[in-house]
Amino acid sequence: MSDIPAFYPIGTPGTPWGDAERDAWRTGQQVKRSYRDDVLAVVERLRDRFNVRQYGELHYGADHYPLIALKSREWDDRLPTVLVTGGVHGYETSGVHGALQFLERDAGDYAGRVNLIVAPCVSPWGYERIHRWNMQAVDPNRSFVADSPAAEARALMALMEPVGDVLLHIDLHETTDTDESEFRPALAARDGKPNEPGEIPDGFYLVGDSENPQPEFQRAIIEAVGKVTHIAPADARGELIGSPMVAPGVINYPVKSLGLCAGVTNAPYVTTTEVYPDSPRATPQQCNDAQVAAVRAAIDFVLDRGAR
């Protein structure tokens, strides 16, 4: 991949960033789209159908971002609870817009069947700048831990702490070509480590929890999404992004020990979607549709089994 820099243009190879390097990185991050127009405007249209809750607010310099979750209006403690999260990595566009599309077009099909909590854009600063990190150059999706360094993660953990049992959590993500051209080189530079180029999977895949993998659940989602977009094949080593493929389109991570958003609850059914938006075989709408298909298949699976 000749477009991957030999070293990142900020910092000194082999030396972790300090305040000066973080400041230089932050100066280069420019607003490219509007959280208010793209997300909050859609939320306003949904106020008559959901309970809209502001569960926090980010104060990043002059920028203030309300953090919004939508909950079933007719909450029933006898029903199973489903959590849908998007935009934990703000640059992963279909995670945000797929969550909003599900709320607008599909969530009504599950009224009276599940309690829904949907946080469509966990990292709005990153959404506006099309970046993986927050303003402090911290990855929110490695920050769902005690004493979290990311305000985005702390706010979502506080939202979920009093909820009680959650049956299902589906976290909507993308793997993009910029993971290799920008974000992994930036990570290596930030941490003073060598950058080791990898291979971006060509298609949709899932990340399950290695401590509770639920292979039938993962398979049901892959089958549903395969009707919308192509599923990523394993590379020559039988892997996806450096992890063994345990079933078609499925790898597993230890989600809690890695501090991933997928570990924010103790839900027995957990998965992270990974859409591939840079494929010539997938349109932006197809990517949103794939996210919705994954959410629907996940909910249908647990309901079909009468889980509570």
UniProtKB/TrEMBL annotation:
It comes from the Bacteria. Residues 31-308 form the Peptidase M14 domain. Coiled coil: none annotated. InterPro entries: Peptidase_M14 (IPR000834). Residues 179-202 are annotated as: Disordered. Belongs to the peptidase M14 family. This is Peptidase M14 domain-containing protein.
